[in-house]
From TrEMBL:
HAMAP family: NRAMP (MF_00221). The chain crosses the membrane at residues 31-50, 65-88, 109-128, 140-161, 173-192, 212-233, 266-286, 306-325, 357-374, 386-408, 420-443. It comes from the Bacteria. This is Divalent metal cation transporter MntH. InterPro entries: NRAMP_fam (IPR001046). Its main location: membrane. The gene is mntH_1. Pfam families: Nramp (PF01566).
Length: 449
């Protein structure tokens, strides 16, 4: 482990230097004090698992296929917990984030290609945030879609303000917004009165071959649930806690509580995603063509001919408020991840405000062009959002394979912290299975042209 540390110091410095090793941890604290001290990074990671991309894929999946794809959300969430555990462990043990580790163990050319793919994945994530925020502004305040797209560029000011408050306060704000989103959808699902036996049956994987539409939606859910950029983010912000890196027992304790934090927060994200799909199925099953956009969903929640007796303007407003909160929440993590990836892969450090403007500016371009070309047609934006989530699923193996490889290596992690055989086996099964499904999706999609 000492040898590895020397190599790290000779590389490109700590990840996210401004927050690295800054949050104090109580010495000899109780389980609950330690859990509280380590809680936070998992919330920033969980935000990516309940962003606007999840909303359209999960609600759309419920409206079109009922409760069938609940099993996909369950499996995706379990995969996410496994991968985020590996990511946090990689950062804490090696003091490298995934981008740094990948760049260190690959050639310059391959590292550059992987950086491009990862940047495109971050753009795909940001596209979902832009679309979600734009449509939420339209629904709540009546702003034209084109104006909303342009306004989302300026959320960089919000991020800069939050960064001045300190990392611990950012974590608290994010956790509060997650709670708001969860409460909104708990309320809406309770009002919708779903068929509970059918819900429970939906968590059991069905023995059937998915058709192209179901496969596209399933992979969209996977891409929206298991976010590749979160692996880079978690491996970095897990290093924000101040521990003695030379004490292997303290490192082991940090890994254990980071895992607790991650799994608790991802369980909350799992609940939100389930609520989204259940809401789509309970209220809109059989009406999938009438709820294909966020605006249609907003209107359907107050249309008794679609949502039944539970329809009301209150449900619509709550939906739009939660959508706006979700998009803004994800802005924070998108910026941090962009910084991690750029610094880790190509060793380039630029000011946060410049990084945010570049990332958001590049992400706004396709949304802006789509809005102008289709004359503000929201259906086109929602289609763009769904395919951005499918791209995330296609990009996922590029992040998964190095992560499983590095955390399974005795040379990189040490004997104590390398993955047990069963963890490595599960990791490789997930990576191979997703890669095969993605190849099938690409072939079928190309065959339809």
């Amino acid at each position: 482990m000492n040898e590895e540390k020397k190599l790290i110091q000779a590389a490109n410095g700590p990840s996210l230097e401004e927050i690295n090793n800054t949050v104090a941890i109580p010495k000899n604290g109780s389980f609950w004090r330690n859990l509280l001290a380590f809680s936070g990074p998992g919330a920033l990671v969980a935000v990516g698992y309940m962003d606007p991309g999840n909303w359209i894929t999960s609600i759309g999946g419920g409206a079109e296929y009922g409760y069938l794809l609940l099993s996909v959300i369950l499996i995706s969430s379990l995969i996410a917990m496994l991968l985020q555990y590996m990511a946090a462990k990689l950062g804490i043990v090696t003091q490298m984030d995934l981008a740094q580790a990948t760049r260190k163990h690959t050639s310059k050319g391959l590292g550059f290609v992987l950086w491009i793919v990862t940047e495109l994945a971050i753009m795909a994530t940001d596209i979902a945030e832009v679309i979600g925020g734009t449509i939420a502004l339209n629904l709540l305040f009546g702003l034209p879609l084109l104006v909303g797209v342009i306004l989302t560029i300026f959320d960089v000011l919000l991020l800069l303000f939050l960064m001045k408050l300190g990392f611990r306060k950012i974590e608290a704000i994010v956790m509060t917004l997650i709670l708001v989103i969860m409460l909104v959808f708990c309320y809406e699902v309770i009002i919708a009165q779903p068929d509970l036996p059918a819900v429970l049956q939906g968590f059991i994987p069905q023995k059937q071959v998915l058709n192209h539409g179901q496969l596209t939606m399933a992979l969209g859910i996977v891409g929206a649930t298991v976010m590749p950029h979160n692996l880079y983010l978690h491996s970095s912000i897990s290093q924000s806690r101040k521990i003695d890196r030379s004490d292997t027992q303290e490192v082991a304790t940090a890994v254990r509580f980071a895992t607790w934090d991650s799994n608790i927060q991802l369980s909350a994200a799992f609940l939100v995603n389930c609520l989204l799909l259940i809401l789509g199925s309970a209220l809109f099953f059989g009406h999938s063509e009438e709820v294909g956009t966020f605006s249609a969903l907003f209107n359907a929640l107050q249309d008794s001919s679609i949502a039944g007796a539970v329809a009301s303007p209150v449900l619509s407003v709550l939906f739009a408020v939660a959508l706006l909160a979700s998009g803004q929440n994800s802005t924070i993590t998108g910026t941090l991840t962009g910084q991690v990836v750029m610094e880790g892969f190509i060793h380039m450090k630029i000011p946060t405000w410049a990084r945010r403007l570049i990332t958001r500016g590049l992400s706004v371009i396709p949304v802006l062009l789509c809005t102008i070309y289709f004359g503000g047609n929201e259906q086109a934006l929602d289609d763009l959002l769904i395919y951005s989530q499918v791209f995330l699923s296609i990009a996922l193996p590029v992040s998964m394979i190095p992560l499983v490889l590095f955390t399974s290596s005795k040379k990189i992690m040490g004997e104590r912290f390398k993955n047990p055989l069963w963890v490595s086996t599960l990791g490789w099964i997930c990576a191979i299975a997703l890669t095969v499904l993605n190849v099938r999706l690409i072939i079928e999609t190309l065959g339809n042209f």
